[in-house]
Known about the structure:
Number of strands: 12
Order of helices and strands: EEEEEEEEEEEHE
Shape: globular
Low-confidence stretches: none
Largest sheet: 8 strands, antiparallel
Structural class: mainly beta
Distance between the termini: 8 Å
Amino acid sequence: MSLCLASAGVVKTLALASFTLAWTHSIEQTAWQEDWRVTKQGLELVQARVKGAGAGMEPPPEARLVGGWFQWSPPRNRLREVVLGNSGLAGEWRLCSADACRTLSEIIGHDIGPHPTTMSACSE
């Protein structure tokens, strides 16, 4: 499977079956991570974790504290696409795989600035 990223008129294809999406919450300045799987039916959120709690980022009741992170497994719905906005207040989204993380600007090849980025499973 492959992940497609589209932003500001550029589309990049990454040969990934799974990845972690990481960012910093814009108000609380707290780390958040989500593990995703790329399937033929779309993108599937497998696990989410947050390094604390606060405004707009309260972990759900089923979350468990593991290694300093509240983590939980959300309902497994497959999404055709996920649109990531950029507020400019907390740095960029980072995509991590095989122990390496890169910002979306690094992946796209230019500063994406305020432009949204759309993630989807590439049609093959």
